[in-house]
Specification:
The chain is mainly alpha-helical. 67% of the residues lie in helices and 2% in strands.
């Protein structure tokens, strides 16, 4: 299907990535609202716990976002089976836009730093403190690989064989550094600098106005450029 990608494709693909990162966070926010009865003040890449939820309830808030992302990857894999080229192209993009590398790479670092991930937090609350950090990390890595390898395998075989490695690995690794630089190091700092202003005021499920406006712009640009996710054979 895909033999290469151009600048227009990358631009639209990154817009799709931003949209699904936001949807991932909104799932966390929605579950906070439904299960814990509160709306946590959040940033672009993180929705903290809020309220008096116990571990048995709050663990579903933690895992809700990853489950959405995995479901979107598997949905993309299913779309690759549809005969229409444009739908296949969307399915292909969905697999990578939901950060399969980003779901995996934080897990080994939890062994070296105090940082954690949604999956690790869920497993900790599910198994209890008596299970060691190493076992929790191993469980998470196995589960994440089991949930990401089938969609990635489908995407691998959707790429023309002579350029398969180059295209696959670029799309696999590209979204995570983009999110780290653009959202986490970039817009989170902007949001922090606007603390106390209307831009930082939560308006939807604890989501500040700045994030709402940013998402609206991303969605508008994605609608306007959506056609670039499909590259006809004549342009490849």
């Amino acid at each position: 299907m895909l033999s290469r990608f151009n600048a227009r494709y990358v631009f639209t693909f990154l817009l799709l990535t931003l949209l699904f990162v936001e949807l991932h966070e909104l799932v966390h926010g929605w579950l906070n609202h439904i299960l814990c009865g509160c709306d946590a003040a959040r940033v672009f890449d993180n929705v903290p716990e809020c309220g008096d939820c116990n571990a048995a309830v709050s663990r579903w808030v933690d895992i809700g976002g990853p489950l959405f992302s995995f479901a979107a990857m598997w949905g993309g894999m299913l779309l690759l089976r549809v005969p229409q080229p444009r739908i296949k192209a969307l399915g292909f993009a969905l697999i990578f836009a939901n950060l399969p590398f980003g779901r995996l790479i934080p897990l080994p670092f939890t062994l070296l730093t105090p940082s954690t991930s949604d999956e690790m937090t869920f497993i900790r609350k599910l198994t209890g403190a008596e299970v060691s950090l190493y076992i929790r990390a191993a469980i998470c890595i196995i589960v994440v690989l089991a949930l990401t390898i089938p969609p990635l395998r489908a995407a691998w075989y959707a790429i023309r064989e002579d350029v398969r490695r180059r295209v696959f690995w670029r799309l696999y690794f590209l979204p995570l550094p983009f999110i780290l630089i653009y959202l986490i190091a970039g817009w989170n700092n902007v949001l922090r600098s606007l603390s106390g202003t209307p831009w930082s005021k939560p308006v939807i499920l604890g989501t500040p106005l700045l994030i709402v406006v940013h998402t609206a712009v991303v969605l508008l640009l994605l609608v306007l450029t959506f056609r670039h996710l499909y590259i006809p054979a004549a342009e490849e």
